[in-house]
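[job 4471] stage=fold_predict status=RUNNING
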Amino acid sequence: MKKDEEEMAPHGGRPVVRLLSGYADSPIWAASGPVDYADSALTEELVADLVAWDSSSYGGVDGLLIEVSERSKGLAEDLAGRLAAELGDGFVVSCDGAAGPMMVSSEMPPTDTEAAAAFTGLIDEGLKLRDLPPANMYYYAPLSGQVFTGPDKHRDSRGSGPSP
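[job 4471] inference complete, writing structure tokens
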């Protein structure tokens, strides 16, 4: 079973959207990573509240994360519920709530069909990227001049063939 199938199996095959404050420009995460607000098609009101919640997670020295308050966790639960309602019964939303990690889902159709369609597209695109073979990927180690293209496949970039 692939990782994305394992992740979706306990949730009736529904993709999981996560709320993770303080890790990227957006606290909304889907299959391919953080979701840009512009790509989400969420309502302006929900986006404004997500931005405010995410911004309140920063503090301390140099904008580092500080301990999350119970109030912030309560807001996360509220925002997860609102996000789940906008996305509808095809999604599950995960967050860290006041009682610990929690999953929120809606049993109703989406209240924002554009957002549900946008998230479906973003998640499908992310899953396609995961399934691509790593043939076009390589890693370069500048100090040694080695190029690694996969397990046991490396070559000296200064030479013409595989290294011994």
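[job 4471] summary: The CA atoms of residues 2 and 25 lie 28 Å apart.
[job 4471] exit 0
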